[in-house]
Amino acid sequence: MSNQFLDQITQRRTIYAIGKNVNQTPEHLTDLIQTAIKQSPSSFNSQSSRAVILFNGESEKFWNLVAEKLKSYAKDEENASKTAAKMASFAAGIGTVLFFEDMDVVKGLQEQFPSYAENFPIWAEHSTAIAQFAVWTALHTDGIGASLQHYNPIVDEQVHAEWDIPASWNLRAQLAFGSIEGEAKAKGFMDDAARFKVFQ
């Protein structure tokens, strides 16, 4: 079966080896990221997803904050060294997208539609996941490698202070991106029979 969209998501992979050797300008990449998020669906068209796009030194600053915070979790010097190297690999890219969900929007929907109140936080998670996937795939189609990380909530306080983030924005994920400097690992798949049921 030939399908352009399926071809793109099939080729998209987690790329850990990233660099700053990109031809696209920050303006181009910003437009790409913003468009991908704006066109991502959300429950009740709530548009609850938010993003902070960090380039170059600002992206490095974020990963330095994470590295500093993780020092307190290191069990020994070897573990600390590995963690520092991992954070440096993310900082080596051209940028990072910080994905948030605006909980004021979620609370507003809960008040407006009380019968669905318990579902809106769940649906907000769906919204951010779709936005993350859309951005990741859009970057891939532009020849940019990326990996999705989750160092929230350990750096939430520092992030909110450093970039003046509204208190209602809840950090959900971080996408480090840049030039592709190494191949992705092979991806295995479980048997379809264990994953899908089809009735006709």
From TrEMBL:
<dbReference type="Pfam" id="PF00881">
    <property type="entry name" value="Nitroreductase"/>
</dbReference>
<dbReference type="GO" id="GO:0016491">
    <property type="term" value="F:oxidoreductase activity"/>
</dbReference>
<dbReference type="GO" id="GO:0034599">
    <property type="term" value="P:cellular response to oxidative stress"/>
</dbReference>
<keyword id="KW-0560">Oxidoreductase</keyword>
<keyword id="KW-0963">Cytoplasm</keyword>
<dbReference type="InterPro" id="IPR033877">
    <property type="entry name" value="Frm2/Hbn1"/>
</dbReference>
<dbReference type="GO" id="GO:0005737">
    <property type="term" value="C:cytoplasm"/>
</dbReference>
<dbReference type="InterPro" id="IPR000415">
    <property type="entry name" value="Nitroreductase-like"/>
</dbReference>
<protein>
    <submittedName>
        <fullName>Nitroreductase</fullName>
    </submittedName>
</protein>
<feature type="domain" description="Nitroreductase">
    <location>
        <begin position="9"/>
        <end position="178"/>
    </location>
</feature>
<dbReference type="InterPro" id="IPR029479">
    <property type="entry name" value="Nitroreductase"/>
</dbReference>
